[in-house]
Amino acid sequence: MKHSLVIILFFLIVLLFSCTNPFAPRLDTNLGSNGSLISPQKTIDGLFQNFKYSYTFKDTTIYGGLLNPNYSFIYRDYDLSVDVSWGRDDDMRVTYGLFQNSQRLDLIWNNIVSMSSDSSNIIRSFNLTITFNPTDIIQVDGRVNLQLEKNNKDIWKIVNWIDESNF
Questions:
Q1: What is the pTM of this model?
Q2: Rounded average pLDDT over 111-121
Q3: In 3-state terms, what secondary structure has residue 112?
Q4: Topology of domain 38-165, per CATH?
Q5: What's the angle, vertex CA 145, arms to CA 144 and CA 149, rounded to 5?
């Protein structure tokens, strides 16, 4: 009896220390050199990474961090044959509405078409898939024409965005 109790106790201890909970995996500590998915935006690539992150996770806080306080967005209304523009507050409202009303946003940044020598003007192509629901999916292909500026902390921000998409 004493011998069987020792064997049962041994198996319980082995079972207790050898099991991992598949519903509580370990935390991945290898997120990158700075330990974050968010870039400090000290490079142009960091700005575009944060842009993609903000759309993927529908995060208006990260998106707002991309925009200069004097930001403006310009697009062409082909039906009226006029350019329409709005500022940062309107853009945040529109983006918040997009994030809230879509199930999924897939943004792919393609090649940089042109860039000024100081990186303050960039034209870059993109593909955006907006899934509102499984039967309502929109594909937007085009280019962004961005005027960028570093703030006093050397963080890149978007000052002007001219939309050159097919939408």
A1: 0.77
A2: 94
A3: strand
A4: Nuclear Transport Factor 2; Chain: A, (3.10.450)
A5: 115
